[in-house]
């Protein structure tokens, strides 16, 4: 009597989609305890049959590692035997049967059983011409088993399997082409075996369907389906090609990893923000004012520095605050500046439009930022084990729809660098250090932070003193009666001193921070980048704080002391100069810090090493420039145009320099939360600070009396109140708007309430995400515990099997012979 094999029933239907449903899994995956009880109950009867029929080879195989099991057990190292209880010994035939029918091991199954199932099913399809069956009707015994290598290995079973294969090929040949393709697609065999079945079915002479035998309606239906699929795939490809810089980003990711990629993705995000602001401001402010331009008193002078200073010719243009009118634009007016006898139709209240456009731009930007930040939090703070991601990346990352050589090369490089990052994260181990080493590292880090904070405070104080000196120098130049062309040109050039000084500090001090960071010796590259980002952020915030005090605390409060009739336009020109100088110094840093350093390293030092892309410095430069752009919305409505042009040039310049002058980091690391971190920094220090400064200006500071849409008002905020009062005066039914504006808009409590609601929403969302993370951690821990339980139960099953097995002298004799041969082998 041969060894009992796992039986596969052939009376079930097959799957419809190839993916099993949870209901079917609940019905199929029986309790493991029930398997233990069934095996223990049938163990006595099974052993009696095995003892009467098995020879010495079979008995020896159950107790000692022989045949295939001998090789596997002999090659198990001692460490594995100590760590994994499942490799302590080779299992008996009865235990292997239970292992082969375990629900967790139903991944593959006996090839003969598969062929038998599909032979029966194709017979039914040939007779009844019906579609494929669903997997719900499959019985448990016909499901796959990863331990089926011990089943059907003798010659008779092999011949029977080949016969089943031949009959399956004959049945597949008799099916229609569509049914044959669907059936082959659903068979749970390897691609090689499926290809062999398909080729065998095509080689054999048999019934073939010619195009003339297919009905005309069916042909038309197939042509329509194929055309629709081609058009759909073409449309998806077209939509994918519309994504900005998609190919360039893939090339960057494939060569330099996700850390450098996060910088360019962040740059693209900022570009979209500025394009949105540009469209809003041009549609509601720039275009209406350009259609009805105000009358200018004098023509501006040209000094040749207008592109750098933003003054001169650009001072009296739609670029700055002072150009916009303070009256309602109508279709036909008499020409007076403050007239009231204009036509009623096509009127446009410019002060009200200016106020609400700036407010709406900030509000919508806030909504988009909060939504992007919450969505990014939910995506990046998931519990993704590196080992699980590594397995998914190895087996599921390739896109088989890619056919172009360039796309295949990009995808290969991208997957390669991601695998390197995941492997580095899996292999990274925390080094356990002693107390003395930790105290030494803490002392060095404390010294480094003290140096960085001290240098930042010193630079901020230096800018404060220098801005005060430049303010006094401007007052002295205003008092002087010299109005020659040379003096005016020197006055225009002196306006560039403060932007150049600030940009120089932003260029040099991050390099000093990197030098200080060398003595800290952080093990993780991501930790080193986060520390550098915080230090650069501290520098940018301190400098912007000093500059905001200079503009809103000195220039705005005493504009006449420096001879300014429109201080808002002067602040707008300052912001333009700072944004332009930031771009110029960033270009210089790219040229000297990357290009010339590469040439110096390769030709002078004779080294092939190239500089590494500084993520922290470049990201904070983007945040610094975007903060200036947001601050300038009120004073320079066309400043987003400059920011968009700057970002476009910056992308191509950085990408070219990266590809030619930089190298990938020596230690690969995965930037799983970099984008979320960048958006968070963009939202809270950058956007929040800009919104506070703009709100303070509109609510508190008195606007200029001779320029701009808010001239003649105590605050810019009164434009809304004046409009509400006019509506209530014209229409008595709208008097409630005055009450609503007084208690809901003018009252700061409404603003604090809205900000509190936003913070509560963000807090609750973060709590929900944190709760989901904890649940996922508990579920993963439960899965690990269930795996340990399976190991324990299998070990107990083997122990019960060995205890209930009768004593056999032949087994002892075989065991002694095997032990003697092993001893000789170890002696050799």
From TrEMBL:
Q: Which UniProt keywords apply?
A: Membrane, Transmembrane, Transmembrane helix
Name of the protein this chain belongs to: Transmembrane channel-like protein
Record field: transmembrane: 260-287, 353-373, 439-464, 496-518, 530-552, 628-653, 674-699, 749-766
Q: Which family does it belong to?
A: Belongs to the TMC family.
What subcellular locations does the record give? Answer: Membrane
Q: How does it sit in the membrane?
A: Multi-pass membrane protein
Source superkingdom:
Eukaryota
Residue stretches making up the TMC domain: 566-672
**Keyword Cell membrane in annotation:** no
Q: One GO CC term of this entry?
A: plasma membrane
Q: Name one GO molecular function term.
A: mechanosensitive monoatomic ion channel activity
Record InterPro entries: TMC, TMC_dom
